[in-house]
Structures are given as structure tokens and as C-alpha cells.
Write a structure and sequence with these properties.
Elements lengths: L3 E10 L7 E8 L5 E8 L2 E8 L2 E8 L2 E3 L4 E2 L3 E15 L9 E14 L6 E9 L2 E8 L7 E7 L2 E3 L5 E4 L12 E4 L24 E3 L3 E4 L5 E7 L7 E6 L4 E6 L8 E4 L2 E2 L2 E7 L2 H6 L2 H4 L15 E6 L1 H4 L8 E3 L2 H5 L3 E3 L6 H13 L4 E4 L29 H11 L2 E7 L4 H17 L4 E5 L14 H16 L3 E4 L15 E4 L7 H4 L7 H4 L35 H10 L4 E3 L4 H5 L2 H9 L4 E10 L3 E8 L5 E7 L4 E6 L9 E8 L12 E8 L4 E6 L4 E8 L2
Parallel strand pairs: 24-27, 24-32, 27-28, 28-29, 29-30, 30-31
Antiparallel strand pairs: 1-8, 2-3, 3-4, 4-5, 6-7, 6-12, 8-9, 9-10, 10-11, 11-22, 11-23, 12-21, 13-20, 14-15, 14-17, 16-19, 17-18, 18-23, 19-20, 25-26, 33-34, 34-35, 35-40, 36-39, 37-38, 37-40
Helix pairs in contact: 5-6, 7-8
């Protein structure tokens, strides 16, 4: 039952404040530990953030620069101050917990220019026990109706040379290795210098990183900086001043070099700062979700979690192809075009996957490369390459649909755009009607390559609006959507619960066509990419060496047991069993965990965590008494001691432990694992030895 208590604590209205505001407006979190301060200095707005009387963010600038040399950053007076408090509990449609508390104190500070224009700008702060969210709001007014933002001056001035986990500020991709360094050692270039491939050492302040940015202070404080509710606005990167340990907002520009086009009334996304002296609290925070609007969908009963396989990994490793090709020479000799090559999405191969998925209780199957257009999906031809309804000759839609229905398997649509968002926009209704006709309840979209319209970026305002349009259109047709090569999420899965997952990061697929992901990669992602929402990471690879036909020496940087643990540590209500059926057949005992593990949860316990080192998480399956645990480590082996005190007291459970073998090592012996069974209770402590690049997965099933 939803409980909502909202009341006005304080209302102060005045239009006679001086330009100078010597007494700052202060607001504390409900538990009193966090305090934000706002004040004007010579008409310029600033804020700071303290935790338990210690500074987290020093005095930092606020404001906006508009085009044509206009500004909304100075010559202000405070016209009004409104404080309030809010406390509710709400239920996510899909999530890590069954209920979420949304408890904060807020203050809206209305600023008015002292110039003759007298334009108004509101700055709104919401202070939670675990962090701060703030944004700019533009009230309806005569002198600010339609306007263009050139820059945002929001700064995050740090108290020292913190340890940072970062990727470079690329306008079009989040698919990078994470670097770990001090702020003073960040060497990521900022756009547009990134496209030149070379740093100019003579240009100051040229470094930029993506959000979410994870930081750790020398005295053990954890700070996470990101944004929430990114709608009708470009994504925010952070420019790094390495000498002053200062971060400032950088908005992804459009083809004309402008950042955002807005109307009043309106607002920016929330800038978020999550703070704790415990790394586990950072992962447990729901502040970003809370800063998003409630669901816009009246009926969400059709939105379901899903475990799936795919005719996908075999293309990634070179076993088959996305496109269907012909032997052109056969036309002259036989009078007909004869297919050649090895097209993966053929009817017989798809049926083989359906059979395996059905036999093993995997409810979904994704098929890539099923439709015409892959032979010209990038480059100058891409603007009209796909129509999203025409299959290749060897993919029989009707036959596959009927076969999947008989086997109890749900087909998942794939709509790759090749970056041509305009073409996809033109075909959205057609594509979703096709999905409805053939009972596709979910779709994976893709945006590989440079964006069309030309000059736009994946993370710019135009594409942000495109991603929202796709989610809204999908909801109209009751289709769930999983977006790849999209902007990193900002909690919009609360507002659009059918937007169930994103890629927006360096996923498991990079192990197929590159040097792969480092052993520490999955211990950083939950503190960075996953802070804004679920990730379709595609775990579950069992053949960890000699799997790529075009690179026989390539191998994964994890053990097999760690691949199992990722189903718990990398949250998503859409989880893929990513490997080939024959590789699962070779390890049916280990595959049992993938068959058993939940994908939607009633409760989550972050048992231990340190960014870049290790993570252990326990989750309770939605509507059941089963718990599942995942523990992972970086390139170092370690012993993990897992207390099971989250289990029901007085109840016995069968623990099935999938762990690294005695001699397991991500590099020398990655596929070594052992499986143990034992009876446990809430007083049990499990001691697990995690190999280098290793992990462990545990099923905890009540004894009947």
C-alpha cells in the first residue's frame, strides 16, 4: 500500500533580498548527516555540500550561459525560498527490491535578475540521507520563453586529489575500459579533441570524463556523481581541472554547436551526488530512481522480466554472419542466384536454438541478422538500409513464430539502425505493428556508427529525445525495449518501466572482437554504468579460450564461476545466457545455475564491495523464498566470507555453491570449477576462495 506524506515545513517569500546574500540557505537531510548550502556572492549563485560537518563539495558555481552572449549566472537576487519535506514508498514494476522509500527534504530558491530583464531562474535542491539532487527550473515568464543553452556552469569542486574510476568523455560511446587514477592524473581528452586522436599539451583544461563518475577520498569517503531524469537535454560530461581538483559540467553539443533548446516553463535534469563512508551504500542507493517521475504507463501488467538466449554470439566470434549473401557468378552459369556464406539467422538454426531454450526453461530467444539491409548497414548507404519488416529468404517468420509458440519460447525482435535514427523514426509504427503481428513482446535496438541526422551525437539532445520517443512508442504497442549504443541510463526505467535495459557500456561482447575486458571491469561497472539503471551485459560465456575463429589465441579475462556470479552482481531484469548451446551442453551441471537464477527481486543485500576490487551481493527472488548470491573479484585472488544472516531465522536451506576450482585462474585455467551442496541456516558463514579473475555463485533454496 502506498503511503505518501507531504507537508510544508517553511515558506518564506520576499522580493526585497539584496544582491548579496550573506546568510546562506541551508538544508539538511532527514537524518541530519548531509547539509547543502546555497548563497549568492556578488549576485553569482554557489552551493556546497557537507557530510557530518566535513566538506564533500567545496564552494561551487551554478548558472547557465545562453547563446548570443546572454547569461543566467549572475546579477541575481533571491526572490523567494520554499522548503518542504516528502516521504513515500512506491513499488517498481521490475527491480532489485519490492518497495523503495522516497524520503527527502527540498528547497526551491527563486532567483531574479537585478537587470531590467528581471528574468527568473529557480534552483531546486533535494537532500536525501544518501545524497543530493539539484536542478535548474525555468518558470513561465515574458522575457524567457524559447532559449538556447550554450554552456552549463555547474561545478563540483572537490576537497582533494581523490581516486577516480573513469572513462573518457566521448560524445558517442561509453564502451571503454575503466581507468583508475587520481584526479590529477586523469588523461582523458575532451571532445572535439578526441576525434583528432592526439592531445595538445598546450591547451589547458582539455580533459573530460563521463558520468557516472566514482570517487574515493583519502580518508575513505565514497562519492558518486551522475544525473537523473535525462529528458529533452544533452547528457552531461565532466571537465576535469587537474590542478584544482575541480569538475564542471560539459553538455554534449548538437550539429550546430549548441547544447540545448528549451522553452519556459521547463527544467534541466537533476545533477546527483551520492555520498557514503561505505561502498555498499553507494550500490544500495535508490536516489537516482527516486528523482525520476513515476510511471507514465497506466497498465504495466504486460511488462515481465526475461531470461533469453540469442543467435548472436556465433556472429560475434565469426562462426556465422549477420548478412545473407549470394554467389553472383552462379547467375551466369545456372540462371539463378545461389546463396553463399554462412548466414546465422536461418530457419533451421533458429529452430535449433528454440529447441535448446525450450528444453532448459529459457523463455526468450533473440535473433540478429534476420532482416534485409545488413549488407549495407553502415557508411553512406545506411540512411535507408532497413525497413524492419522484410526477412532474408532463409528466415521464415511464420514458421519460426509457430514453432516458438509450440515450444513455449518467446521471440525477441532485433532492430539495428546502423545509427540512422531518422530512418528508424520513419518506420517505428511499421516495426511495432510487425512485432505485434508475430508476437514479439520485446525488442533490442542498436545504434552502431555515426548518427544520422549528420552531425548529431549519441548523447546529444536530439538523440536523447529519440530514445524517449522509442520507449513511448514501444509502450503504445506493449513492447519492452532494450537499447544498445544508447546514452547511459539515468533512472528513466521508473518513468517508462518497459524500457527494461540498456547496453551503454563496455559489455561482455568486447571479449569476442577485441582484447576484451580486464578482470577488474565487472567490479567497477556497478559503481559507474549501473548507477543509472540495468545493463544488458550478456554474461554466461562458458568456453573461455579458443572461441573466436578469427583470433584463436583470444580468451576471456574471467573464470567460468565468475561468469555465473555476474547474473547476480550485474543487475538486469533482462538476462542473457550468451554462449552457444553446445558449450552449455558440455557443462550442464554449471548451466543449472543459469537455469535457476532469478531475474526480478524482492530484496537485495550488498554484502561487501570495493570499487575495482570485489563485490558480493545477495538477492531474494520475486515472489519466492529463494536467494541467490554472486561474489566476484579482480585480478587478485581473495577469500570471501559470506554471512547468511539475511536468510529466514529457523529455516534450513540447501546451498548449491558454484565456485572456482582449486587451480582455477582466469589466464591459465579459467574453466575449472567445483559444485558443492550443503545445508545452511541464517547463522552459517560460507568461506569461499575466489581465484584470480574469479568468483562464486550460490543458490539458496529452502528445504521442504
Amino acid at each position: 500500500m502506498k503511503k505518501c506524506f507531504q507537508f510544508l515545513l517553511l515558506l518564506i517569500s520576499t522580493s526585497l533580498f539584496a544582491v548579496e546574500q550573506p546568510n546562506p540557505v541551508k538544508l539538511k537531510s532527514p537524518d541530519g548527516n548531509l547539509e547543502v548550502s546555497f548563497y549568492l556572492k556578488n549576485g553569482i549563485p554557489y552551493y556546497s555540500l557537507n557530510r557530518k560537518n566535513a566538506v564533500v563539495i567545496k564552494e561551487s558555481r551554478l548558472g547557465l550561459i545562453l547563446t548570443e552572449n546572454q547569461s543566467l549566472d549572475k546579477d541575481f537576487k533571491v526572490a523567494d525560498i520554499q522548503e518542504s519535506a516528502f516521504n513515500e514508498t512506491w513499488k517498481p514494476v521490475l527491480g532489485e527490491v519490492s518497495t523503495i522509500q522516497n524520503h527527502y527534504k527540498s528547497v526551491k530558491i527563486s532567483l531574479e535578475e537585478t537587470s531590467k530583464l528581471k528574468r527568473r531562474l529557480d534552483v531546486v535542491f533535494k537532500v536525501y540521507n544518501d545524497g543530493l539532487g539539484f536542478r535548474y527550473e525555468f518558470p513561465k515568464q515574458a522575457n524567457l520563453q524559447f532559449f538556447v543553452i550554450s554552456r552549463e556552469l555547474t561545478a563540483f569542486n572537490l576537497t582533494g586529489d581523490h581516486k577516480a574510476f573513469w572513462i573518457p568523455g566521448d560524445y558517442d560511446s561509453n564502451e571503454y575500459h575503466y581507468a583508475t587514477s587520481k584526479i590529477s592524473e586523469v588523461d582523458a581528452w575532451k571532445q572535439p579533441l578526441i576525434s583528432k586522436g592526439k592531445l595538445n599539451k598546450n591547451i589547458p583544461d582539455q580533459y573530460a570524463v563521463q558520468t557516472p563518475l566514482m570517487l574515493k577520498t583519502a580518508d575513505g569517503l565514497y562519492i558518486n556523481i551522475h544525473e537523473a531524469a535525462l529528458v529533452n537535454y544533452p547528457a552531461m560530461q565532466l571537465h576535469v581541472d587537474r590542478s584544482n581538483y575541480s569538475l564542471s559540467a560539459n553538455l554534449v553539443p548538437d550539429a550546430l554547436g549548441n547544447s540545448a533548446y528549451l522553452r519556459a516553463p521547463g527544467n534541466t535534469p537533476w545533477r546527483t551526488i551520492i555520498v557514503s563512508d561505505k561502498a555498499t551504500d553507494i550500490l544500495a542507493s535508490k536516489m537516482i530512481l527516486n528523482l525520476n517521475e513515476p510511471s507514465k504507463l497506466a497498465n504495466t501488467s504486460w511488462i515481465k522480466p526475461l531470461k533469453y538466449m540469442g543467435v548472436w554470439w556465433e556472429m560475434q566470434i565469426g562462426k556465422s554472419n549477420w548478412n545473407y549473401t549470394f554467389d553472383v557468378d552462379s547467375l551466369s552459369s545456372t540462371g539463378t542466384l545461389i546463396p553463399q556464406g554462412n548466414h546465422g539467422a536461418n530457419t533451421a538454426n533458429v529452430k535449433r536454438y528454440i529447441d535448446f531454450a525450450s528444453k532448459n526453461g529459457i523463455k526468450g530467444l533473440l535473433v540478429e541478422g534476420w532482416n534485409t539491409g545488413w549488407e549495407e548497414w553502415t557508411g553512406n548507404w545506411k540512411e535507408n538500409n532497413f525497413d524492419y519488416v522484410t526477412p532474408y529468404p532463409d528466415f521464415n517468420v511464420e514458421e519460426i513464430t509457430e514453432y516458438a509458440k509450440q515450444k513455449g519460447v518467446e521471440m525477441i525482435m532485433h532492430n539495428e539502425t546502423g545509427g540512422s535514427a531518422t530512418n528508424y523514426d520513419r518506420h517505428l509504427d511499421t516495426a511495432f505493428r510487425f512485432m505485434n503481428k508475430y508476437s514479439y513482446k520485446s525488442v533490442k535496438t542498436g545504434y552502431v556508427g555515426q548518427i544520422t541526422p549528420r552531425g548529431e551525437h549519441h548523447d546529444g539532445q536530439w538523440m536523447i529525445e529519440h530514445f524517449v520517443r522509442v520507449a513511448e512508442k514501444a509502450a503504445q504497442y506493449q513492447v519492452m525495449v532494450n537499447m544498445h549504443e544508447s546514452v547511459r541510463p539515468t533512472g528513466l526505467n521508473r518513468t517508462y518501466p518497459n524500457w527494461i535495459a540498456n547496453e551503454a557500456g563496455r559489455g561482455n561482447e568486447w571479449n569476442a572482437f577485441s582484447d576484451g575486458n580486464t578482470p577488474e571491469h565487472e567490479t567497477i561497472l556497478p559503481f559507474t554504468r549501473l548507477m543509472g539503471g540495468p545493463m544488458d551485459y550478456t554474461p554466461g560465456i562458458f568456453k573461455l579460450r579458443n572461441y573466436a575463429s578469427n583470433a584463436p589465441d583470444r580468451q576471456m579475462h574471467t573464470t567460468l564461476a565468475k561468469q555465473l556470479a555476474l547474473y547476480v552482481t550485474m543487475y538486469s531484469p533482462l538476462q542473457m545466457a550468451a554462449d552457444l548451446p553446445e558449450n552449455y551442453e558440455a557443462h550442464q551441471d554449471a548451466f543449472q545455475f543459469i537455469k535457476d537464477v532469478g531475474v526480478d527481486w524482492d530484496d537485495t543485500k550488498i554484502l561487501e564491495a570495493e570499487p575495482g576490487d570485489y563485490i558480493t551481493i545477495a538477492r531474494k527472488e520475486k515472489g519466492k523464498a529463494n536467494w541467490f548470491v554472486g561474489a566476484i573479484t579482480d585480478e587478485n585472488s581473495r577469500q570471501s566470507v559470506i554471512p547468511l544472516n539475511f536468510l529466514d531465522k529457523g529455516r534450513k536451506y540447501t546451498a548449491i555453491v558454484y565456485k572456482d576450482g582449486k587451480d582455477a585462474d582466469w589466464k591459465t585455467n579459467p574453466e575449472a570449477y567445483t559444485i558443492e551442496k550443503r545445508i545452511v541456516t541464517s547463522s552459517t558463514k560460507l568461506k569461499l576462495n575466489l581465484a584470480k579473475g574469479g568468483g562464486a555463485a550460490i543458490s539458496l533454496i529452502p528445504v521442504q
